[in-house]
Predict the structure of LysR family transcriptional regulator ArgP.
Amino acid sequence: MFDYLQLKALATVVSEGGFERAAKVLNITQSAVSQRVRTLEEKIGQSLVIRSVPVEATPLGKRLLRHYAQVEMLEQELQAEMDGDDPSQPTTVSIAVNADTLATWFLPALSPLFNRRNWLMELIVDDESYTHNLLRNGDVVGCVTTTEEALPGCKSDPLGTMEYLCVATPEFRDRYFADGINKEALLAAPAVIFSTKDKLHHKFLKRYFDLDEVNIWQHTIPSSEGFLDAVRNHMGYGLVAHLQAQPLLETGVLVELTPGMRKEVPLYWQHWNIKAKQTTLIYRALIASSRQLLLSY
């Protein structure tokens, strides 16, 4: 059996990035925090943290933190039931989500649920190809991800497909693509991408035009709203999610540069495979909205 005071000390050290900060959060001495972590390591027989700046969990440490986070979530649910959803004891639910999902349908899908349940939402925004790493590390209870295969100890449920359209303003099109879209024109036109992690644009160019990412000019704007603003302000062309692009196409603010050439991104809700009210209700709320707004597989 684990000593959960020791696990809490480990979790606090990792989340705070060091023993001194953890001691302040836990309101105990730094030596007491170190002793709890050291005792846990001795019991396990392996190091659980890398004593760097900031402190990081080892692979085994991450597994223990995931276990601790799962137990903590179940305890929060039980406490909420015992307190009758006491508004002075809200439950915090941590979720990882990609920026385009957050900018379009995610909050409208979940806000009614969180308003009813007296839950607090803690969102971590990352590229949809990386959000599952936060679930693996125990940082979140669930994530919106492109990874279909469930992580160990987790479940993966399909949500639907986000479709991305290659768009620009009419002015940008007339300036850079007056003679149509081809390799030469794409090499001379600045693109807008979300971040260095985001490979969507490069996969699109490779698939349809056999262009490698090193050859293109690009603005990097790690904000879904800022990304769209950059395209709308003639800074470049980009791949925009259909939920954001469609209203602007209908009003003529943007034009689709490559009709028939689109990039589909399937999305999944991955969560811990335990019978927890939080993840079950969140999935129900997400799937109710995604069936209306996302494309079916």
The chain has a mean pLDDT of 89.
